[in-house]
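Our consortium's second objective concerns turning raw sequence data into structural hypotheses that experimental partners can test. To show how far this objective has progressed, the report includes one record in full. It was chosen at random from the queue rather than selected for favorable results. The single chain below, 231 residues long, was entered without modification.
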Amino acid sequence: MRSLFVVAVACMLAACAQREPVKLYSGAEQPAAQVVVVEMPYTLEVLNINGQPVPAANSMTGNRDRKLHLQPGQYRINAYYENIYDVDGGLSHEVVRTRSATFMIDGQAGDIWRLDFDAPQNLTEARAMKDEFSGWAQNTRSGQRNPTEPGPAYVSLVGQLMGGGSSPTYSDEVKPLGAQAPVTAAPVVPSQAAPATQTLPHTDATLTTLQQLWLMLSPESRQAFLQWAEK
C-alpha cells in the first residue's frame, strides 16, 4: 500500500508541471497578437467563464502566474482566492477559499488583461475576506481598470457532479459573450443528490480538488479512506 501511495504522489507531482499558456479557443493556435491574454496570480482559481466551467483554466503552475488565451471579445470571469496556510508551525493546514468575484473584460486582439486583488499577508487577513472578496481587471496596454462585482458562491467539481439535475458540461473552448447561448447552472439540492453519472475530468484542477479534500480530512477519515482504497 505504501508503494501505491508513493506512486500516486509522484503522479500528482508530474501533473503539476506547468502547461501554459492555456488555449481556450477552437482551431489552430494563434500568436499572442491575435488573441486576448488573461494573466492572474496562481492563488486565483477560476470558477467559470461566461457561466461555463473550464477546469483547464486552473492548470497548476507552481507559484507562477496563470495565462489564458481567449478569442477577442467580452468575458465575465468568476474567480476566487484559494490558498493553503500552515497552522501550528506546519503541524496542520487550513485551506482558505473565498466567495468568487466577477472580473469583467472586453478584450481586443493583442490585449493583455491582468486579474488582480489585494493579497492577504497572513491567515487572519485571508479569513477576513472569505465573504467579501474583490479585485479588478486591468488592461496593461490602455490602463483601463474594471472593478469586480460580487460573484456566485464556490461550488467544487465534486459538488457540481453530485448536486442533482443535469451534469455540467466541460470544454476547453470558451466563446465571448454574445457568441454562445447563456448557460444556466443546475440547482444544487444536497438532500436530493443523486449518484454521479459522469466521472471527474482528468485535469490538474481535479487533482487539486482531491489534494485539498485530503488535507481537510481528519486522521480517522484518512485511515478509513486508505482502508477502502485497499479493497
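The partners drew two points from this record. The first strand starts at residue 22 and ends at 23. The CA atoms of residues 85 and 122 lie 8 Å apart. Both points have been shared with the crystallography group to help prioritize constructs.
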